[in-house]
Each structure stands twice: as C-alpha cells, then as structure tokens.
Amino acid sequence: MEVKELYRQILGIEEPWRVSQVERIDVKVVHDENMRWPCPECGELLTVYDHAPERVWRHLDTCQFKTYLHARIPRVDCPVHGVRQVKVSWAEAHSRFTVLFERLAIGVLKEANIEGAARLLRVSWDEAWNLMERAVRRGQRRKKGRVVKKMGVDEKSLGKGHNYLTLVYDLGEARVEYIADDRRRESLGGYFSLLSLAQREEIEAIATDIWDPYLASIREHVPGAEEKLVFDRYHLMTHLVQAVDKVRFIFTKNYLNWLKNRISASTSS
Ligand SMILES: [Zn+2]
User: Fold this and answer.
1) What is the mean pLDDT of residues 59-87?
2) Same domain, 81 and 163
C-alpha cells in the first residue's frame, strides 16, 4: 500500500481531503490522571508534583519515516529525595533516543564505523558518537575490567570550551574499550582499577601519547611499564588519531595488521 494511502486510512481522511505528504511521525503519549508514581530513588509511591517540559525521543522508524515520541514526564516530590523526575519505560535518563532505538544503534555501531552508522541510522555524527559512548560506559559499569593486551590510550576533545575524554582502545579488536571523563591520571587509573594485578601483567603493549598524567598512571598500575610503552607518536598515535578523526573505530583489516606490526616491532626492539 502506498504510504499516503496507508496514512489516509489510518487517519480516516475522507474526500475532499487527501494526504499530500508524510514527513515524519510524531507520537504523543500521556498518562492517566490520579496516577501515583514511584520516586526514582526509593520507590515510594507519590502523587504528581508537576511535569517536566515536553521531551522528544527518536524511536525506530515507522514505514521508513523517522518516528518521534513526545511526552511530558511527571515529577514527584519525595519527602526524602526532593523533586525528582520519574523513570519512563521507553528510555533511559538523559537519552534522546528510546531504548529500542539505542539497541538498534548499538547493533549498527558494532558493524560500522561512526560515520557509516550515522548515515544508516540517519542521525548526526555527534549523536552516533554519543550512542557509542553511552554503550561503552554502560558496558563498563556492568562488567569487570577486561584485559586489553595491545592497548591504545588517547584523549578526545569534546569541542569548544568542553572538557576532554580519555579513551582506551583495544587495538587488537579495534574498538573503544573504556571511556572516562577528563584526561587526568585518575581518568586512566579508573580503567586499570577494574583489573587485578595478574590481569595488568597480561598487558603486552600500550601505545600512548607523551602525556605525563597517562604515563604516571601506566607506571603506577602496569608492571614492567617501561618495556611495554610505545611512544611512536608520529607513526602510530598520529595514525590512530587520524583514524579516529575520520571516525574509523572499526579499522580495515590491513590497517589493523599494520598497527599490530608496528607495536610488535616497537616492543621487540
Ligand atoms: Zn525517594
């Protein structure tokens, strides 16, 4: 069925009217009045205090149209925790996407670089980055540390007037393993602290910029750090940084092999 006809039928549009265009789908959701809502902190059931301004979440496309969910989230006034916004079932706090959209996005991000994922999902580069960042952070909250035998450490500037992020890459699997705020010693230390001493011993090589806080953290946490550090700034990190700038978190196989060889060469010499 043609989409205009579909929407004509869904909307019950009758002659002399017809649907001329369907651009995007906006769905508004509201809740029953007199509902009691759990405080997001303690779960105590409370009446509505007020509503936050309307928010919009991108949802899975409907018939190839971008689809948005609109709602005003109720706030409760908990005697213990004060005025809080309640949780909604369709999205995580602070996300501009529904859970179902995020799940799709993570699947796409596993198969494509950020640029490609942004194109496929029809989101901006920043939004795709943000979806990846949230997924990595969620993952690292859940799991214990995983040893990255060939790791890359890099900083990422968040743009004008913003702070930095510290990124730990798994160069073997070509993915972002860990993200922390700032680029301090503790930023990187957060990753190492997820690992046992035995795990930290398993780290074979660390490619990093010559940035004192990172070096201090590596020397503090990684046994035999001096032999494992790879400061091939111009031939290695620059390439990695460029690759990241080009948004290739999933590097091509050749590039990856080249990178591994560089590390092997630096560590064996
Ligand atoms: Zn509470």
Assistant:
1) 93
2) no
Q: What is the pLDDT of residue 244?
A: 54
pTM for this predicted structure: 0.66
254 Cα–ligand 1 center, Å: 54
- Angle separating helix axes 253-268 and 238-245, nearest 10 degrees: 160
CA–centroid distance, residue 85 to ligand 1 (Å): 11
- The predicted pLDDT at position 200 comes to 94
Instruction: Give the list of residues 6+ apart from residue 124 with CB closer than 8 angstroms, or none.
Output: 118
Q: Is the same domain home to 181 and 248?
A: yes
Residue 100 CA to ligand 1 centre (angstroms): 28
Residues 26-71 have pLDDT tens digits of 989 988 888 899 999 999 999 999 999 999 999 999 878 899 999 9
Instruction: Check pLDDT > 70 for residue 242.
Output: no
- Report the domain count for the chain: 3
Domain, as residue range, for 71: 9-90
Same domain, residue pair 263 and 153: yes
Q: Report the side by side order of strands in the sheet with 175-181.
A: 175-181, 164-170, 150-157, 205-208, 229-230
Section 253-260 average pLDDT: 56
Q: Ligand 1: distance of its center to the CA of 83 in Å?
A: 9
Give the Å distance between the CA of 45 and the centre of ligand 1: 9
Distance CA 177, CA 203 (A): 14
Say if residue 185 is in the same domain as residue 248.
yes
